[in-house]
């Protein structure tokens, strides 16, 4: 069985901001789960087009939203993470929701925020992907070319998305991958 993908706000919004979610549909349609705090972050009234785009993905069944109910295992971990677990600094609600659900349901965490999540990926042995890895998977499956990846990457950077390289080609070189 294929794992579910628990997306953090930053990873999904990279695709939402450029209005290009077809890659997510092709690769993970029906397996994308948003922790409810992520959906709330994406529902910011000052950026209504982002909420509209995520709602389209929900309506098409590419995405579902998962509540983190009190009294559950995932809620206990979520609460620890947003408060600051065992002397570590607190992390955002979106990251905490993604980590708690990915750990509880043995899913894959989709996040670009390494600074906040790296200790927990290691501690919990979480599987993890980011925007670069998503584009790489799309390249390997023939959904995009390297030129398409560079175009998508530059649009994301223009929308102030934080990515680990200045271009998709540079990302491929850093990871020693031929496009």
Strand order of the largest sheet: 3-2-1-4-5
What is the helix fraction of residues, given as a range? 55-70%
Largest sheet: 5 strands, parallel
By secondary-structure content and strand pairing, the structural class works out as alpha/beta
Low-confidence sequence ranges: none
Query: What is the strand content?
Result: 5-15%
C-alpha termini separation: 29 Å
**Number of separate helices:** 10
Mean pLDDT equals: 93
Question: How many β-strand stretches?
Answer: 5
The H-and-E topology, N to C, reads as EHHEHHEHHEHEHHH
Rounded radius of gyration (Å): 16 Å
Outline the structure in words.
- With 179 residues, the chain is α/β, with parallel strands linked by helices.
- It contains ten helices and five strands, in the order βααβααβααβαβααα.
- Strands 3-2-1-4-5 form a five-stranded parallel β-sheet.
- Strand 4, helix 7 and strand 5 form a beta-alpha-beta unit.
- Helix 6 (93-104) runs parallel beside helix 7.
- The protein starts with a strand and ends in a 5-residue tail after the last helix.
- The model has no long low-confidence stretch (mean pLDDT 93).
